Amino acid sequence: MDPTTAIPTYCLKGKREVLMGFSQNGGMVELPNLAFDHQFLKSLGFNLKEIMPFMLLSAPSMPFEFLCFIDTPGYNPSNQGYTGGDKEASKKSLKHAKHILWLISCERGGIESSDLEFLQELYEEEGKQVFIVLSRADRHTKSQLEVVAKQIKETLKDNGIEFLGICAYSATRYQEYKEFSEKSHVFDSLEKFLKKLNQRSEKQNEILGYLYEVHRMYEKAIKQDASRFKRYQKALHSVKLDLMQKGFDDFNDATFNKIKSLNNEFSEQERSKEENLVRLNGVIDLFKESVDKVFDRVSAFTWEKYKEQNDDEEDDEANYREFEEIKKMVLYFRDRSLFYLDWYELSEEEIQRERDSMDYDNKLLQLDYSLRNLSILKGYKERNEKVYQESLNDEKLQNNLREWRRSKQR
Question: InterPro entries attached here (predicted)?
Fold first, then answer.
């Protein structure tokens, strides 16, 4: 397999097909239709990767709306065209990936030591799990492919590397080997794996939550400063009245002039703080627009909504009660998944879906109280409220749940 990717490339769904290059300082440029492989980079006579460390490819034909793939340089020194920096470039890029699709040519007959070492490093250092794609599947018989797959599975298990699945893949006979992987007891479906991951990320609201938290801190500090200058003006006015009551009524006196000068200065400082507050709100609005643009959707999570949720620290007790109430919803869905797994005859796909749901619910149940985690749970509630109410109103389901719970207590 010839290494073609020389620069890490992010691939995602876009409105038009375009290749963009990104510089170290954040600049970007649309690139011509060239093969940015090792041979091309070598012909330039300088290290393009130092200037342009990564590229982005968008295409409307990309089938997964919410997934971004990172195509990394080949790392294996035995590959022709390999460069010394490719391994580090790959590792650096893969730090940002949640899962890894690892291509192994079936012609190798198994997983090589260099693959194993690299995957072990990623798993031990970053906790990255891998889905193995056995490529060039059309070069072997299907029974031979299953033998190779079993050997790879055993090798990974023996070396303590968790893997998410393995599939057979052929670029020339894609549909045939897709169906083979789905029917085989040895292989797994790559398409089902990717479809399960193809979910809208909560990152947008998480980022906005961080942004609004900073906004709240700055707003609080600015308002405190403005309030302090207002108090200074009131104190000066009080001093002025005290002096007048004691007979000091010469408004041309140096003391009165000083009081007037200080009062004007504090008034100007107060006005400046109010202007800073207006500018802060404008900057935050621009940041939100930028975040929405990155995710290509306008989030309903606005600064006003954040303030409603976190307006006053005195509301902390109410927020905590809401946090615990939503956790009850999470616990209900976790228990419902357990009930489904225990009570019904489910297909393998349904079993996996309930297990995934249960794993996610368990992670949420482990969250400690904080405004950020409350925001995450509120998003969960918003997505599941309708199903939750329908489930609670399903008399048959509730009776079965009660019977199931009683059976567990015996």
Answer: P-loop_NTPase
